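Researcher: Hi, I'm a grad student and pretty new to this. My advisor asked me to get structures for two proteins we've been looking at. I'm not sure of the right format, so I'll just paste the first sequence and hope you can take it from there.
Model: That works fine. Here's the first sequence with its structure tokens right after it:
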Amino acid sequence: MKSSHSYFVRLGRYYGWYSAGFFVLIGLLAIAEQLGMTPRWIGQIFLLATIALYAAIGVMSRTSDVSEYYVAGRRVPAVFNGMATAADWMSAASFIGLAGTLYYTGFEGLAFVTGWTGGYVLVALLLAPYLRKFGQFTVPDFLGARYGGHAARIVGVVAAVLASFVYVVAQIYGVGLITSRFIGIEFEIGVFVGLAGILVCSFLGGMRAVTWTQVAQYLILIVAYLVPVTILSYKVTGVPLPQLTYGGVLKDLGNKELELFSEPRENEVRTQYRYRADDYARKIIDLPDSLAAERTGQLQRVEELRTQGASARELAAAERALRDMPRTPDEARVKWERARQESLVRAAPPVPHAQGHPGPDRAARDSARNNFIALAFVLMVGTAALPHILMRYYTTPSVRQARNSVFWSLFFIFLLYVTAPAYAVFAKWEVYSGLVGTPIASLPAWVAAWGRVGLVKIDDINGDGILQLAELSLNSDAILLLVPEIAGLPYVVSGLVAAGGLAAALSTADGLLLTISHALSHDLYYKMINPAASTQRRLIITKSQLLIVAVCAAWVASLRPDGILFMVGLAFSIAASAFFPALVLGIFWKRANRWGAVSGMAAGLGITLYYIVRTHPFFGGSLSEAWFDIHPISCGIFGVPVGFVTIVVVSLLTPPPDAATQRLVDFIRMPDGIEDFPDRDEKVFDAGGS
């Protein structure tokens, strides 16, 4: 006990010095900015210095011990495991995407906050203590032992890899956004630069290195998240408590919305976007003739500019437009339909920020409410089933510490989530009151800087030289990163936010890559292919899988897939439908058996994937095919009940589990007694032993 206390004190001292050093770095860069240091240097120093810190922790935490590599030696105190779990959880979606989603959807975006926070209640009550009592390494480990044989383990490995891969692509995409903007390199190159930062944190030390790196990353990301909005709160209200003051600003924002939405030029702009959408619709109908006519017209335009001796800039723009034109009717149909949808979005009347479940009629409002509930449900259940989160509770010294670390996780996550709505309100207030109505020629420099990355677009459709709201397009993934510049704060604050976003993306990516590599090396290779593999060989396989998966994820991210938040939502649906029913029934219903679990996991995962392919445009689907008008991001709402029903029905129709499995269920639900799964009994409950 005394040794445990001294270990805790020593960790606190180390991270206290680390935090002090980080604040000193912020202060020095703030002074350097006042003395003339360029923004580019500030951004590079922030990002490279923090990556160097994470790399140093990763190198110092290197290990060749299997227990240390997979579960950090099961000696992470609850408070520090709570911070590491919070960092693991604070992905690019939470740090970067959530503020932007709340900015655009207002009240409807609270489904993310409700679902993600509520999920930790399910983790604490239904899963974390029991998985820690089981005491092995991975979620497929539990499925293999609880349900016997290799079938459940294989389905678990497939689902873990699929959910984690989709999730990690979103994180690496977020890393690419940050590095491309703040280091000044191409997005595709930034993705692989970020990949290097991810690998140095996890490659040498596994879960041990990732855990202590994630604690360091949490300290940076929470400071980076709170500082800008606190300054902005003081600037707007005179009180540096955004969580308490944004309600008054929200009321003022409502009045500003009434004034802005009824402004004649805004209505004129939206009408022109409606005309543009109709024009795209006509061109799509008239394909392929419309494409030929469009190409002929653009060729004539280029020739006219050359004949008239136009400026090099105008001629280059015209030639680029000709070069970027679709080459085939099918390509034109996809490109023009995307442009038509974008025009329709800009033509639609804006929704007040505080309006709940908006819609022009009762059917639309009912649909909005149903999607709110479905999304909150999927995120809540998905949170409780994410393998990279559940793995964190294997690292605590005891079941009691596992329960306590859930509390600390929720507390550290709460600090960010209670602030996210304030971010959205203050950012929207700054845009509506300080940016909209500004002459386009006088827009601040950040508009052009972010425009080059493709995250800010200005379209003066009515040609009046004044920026209307509908003419401004801000990518939701960029809102948080934009806030310091929108508010005119010192650039050191922008660099701080970038460092925080990078910490959030790297911490989650590390945990996800470990989940994938552990599933492939431990559950697939060691448990099923070569149980006699030596410790050294197991670690070599793990590290090689880690490297391969990381490179594949970076390549997919470099293709600029859909928005961060959608990809993360899909990962939650996959995890919820594949894992939650099998885990909960495996712990609380002894009658659940191998055939029921395998059938339920496959059915839940299958219906979820089928729905996403059926309804999402990226896969060739259509929202018109949606069931009950549920959006693709909430596809797990169908997979979870299918999984539960299938497990129950198939289990009742097939023989019950054997006596060894019954004893395992009794063991993991026993509140007192042995807290670690005894090595001497491992063969009794091994997945291949029944």
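Researcher: Oh nice, that was easy. Here's the second one.
Model: And its structure:
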Amino acid sequence: MSDTPALPPDRILSGREEEMRQRAAGIVEELARTIRQFPAETEDLDLLRDAAERLGALFLLVIAGEFNSGKSAVVNALLNDTVMPEGVTPTTSAIHILRYGPSTNEVVGIDGIVEHTYPADFLRDVNLVDTPGTNAIIREHEALSQRFVPRADLVLFVTSADRPFTESERQFMTEIRGWGKKIVVVLNKIDLLRNDEEIAEVIEFIRTNSVRLLGLEPQIFPVSARLAREAQTSEAPEERERLWAASRFGALEEFILSTLDEQTRIRLKLLNPLGIADRVGGRYRAIAAERLDLLDRDLQTIERIEQRIAVFESEMRADFTAYLSRIEAIVYRMNERADRFFDRTIRLGRVFDLLDRERIQREFEQEVIADTEQQIDAAVAEMIDWMVERDLRLWQSVTEYIDRRQLDRHQDEVVGESGAQFTYDRQALLGAVARRAGEVVEQFDPGREAQVIAEALRGAVTQTAVAEVGAIGLGAAVIALATTAAMDVTGILAAVTVGGLGLLILPARKRHARELLRRRSVELRERLAEALSDQFDREVRRSTARVRDALSPYATFVRTERDRFQRLAQALEAVDADITELRRVLEG
């Protein structure tokens, strides 16, 4: 059974009204298209679809209020007949829809909605809905009423004069107001009040609290539906007139039957889908804002990690320069010792000593080489330990950043079911980064890491140096960081003695030996620096690449989702602007 009958064939909208209807329908359709990308909850899409369909349906007047406030009595007084059951208990336990029909009839639908037909002229243009009480014990009936409210073009809210504006009424009116519905308050049972002053006092109470608590000043009709029905059924004209005047029902009847004319109904009907769109759109604007805030904080975390990587690289390069200078200084000091050694050794007074190859080699190793190899080994080992420690600290800082982001997981729940996949994807990726960082930190073995770097460095140094070992063995011995510390200078010393022992030849040979050693030393420093720098660069790239690889899926998700929700937020803002503009036109 449909509860959204189409307009009768003779109800033709004017050109301007049709234009407004199409604009309203376009806004609803655009909003539905936009929120599907969240994805949207089925209930929200159903509301928008129903709102669009109702643009071509009869005006829907919904009667709401607490049970025993006299809603059914108001309906019966409007129809001038006892159509709805009345009583002091919740007699209306289902939603009742009253439509025009040539005869009185009643059919219960499979959804529990009771459809009545009644031959009242004003029902030709209006469908009237009577709902269960907002404070009914049967909560499923109340939920049904609340689901039906968004369809209303106008809500007639009935409150009782003996307990006006109760807490449940305030809450329900707040819900109605949230849907952008026009509310007209019917203050029923004024016959329970003693005089006009008390009636005015209750009206003022409702008006003041509506403004203060709801932010609206509703139109209020004080009536007595009971007296109105007594007047309608009275056979004595004078009594009928007295009761009718005392009921004050005429003003409400005039509003429903005359003031609420076709133009007004059309205006309210066009405003109805805008109210629904505003409510639904506001919810998804809030969702988009929540997610953008969450993603912005995620992005800040990613940027902080990137900044931490940049600081890591900068500090590593600065500190590496100091280590490299320290190692080069070791070679410089060896050169200085070599200069002193040549000055002391290659001279006429030690001609015969120069012929003792083993003795000169021992002296060279003791005085020049000394502990050069151990110093270089110690400096390189310290540098490797430093690199390993800094790599661990980088991963620890990543773990701390990610752990803090995981504390925000509970905030994802505010987006509701429509955020389930978003929440799952984000938490899965965040968890993956956390697990990767945690595993690296927990399984980090400084000794093993240092050994890997040392072996790679030793291999790099050996490859660059061993291929060109010359007359001296200094380059190969020190660059390869081997265990031997001896320096074979006999080739140089033998060359000094070849050709005689003259005063002119010996100084020339000494200069040649010193220049040769210095040249080899420069090659040593350059090759050593090159090998260390290359290996350092590889290790820094390896460290940062591991972090970025772990972070990459999460970072890609955050940036992609942020761009997507920025576009959705802009689309929702555009829909909101369209709603505001069309409302201005309709209400202007």
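Researcher: Is there anything I should tell my advisor about the second?
Model: You could mention this: Strands lie at 59-65, 96-100, 105-108, 114-118, 126-130, 154-160, 183-188, 219-222.
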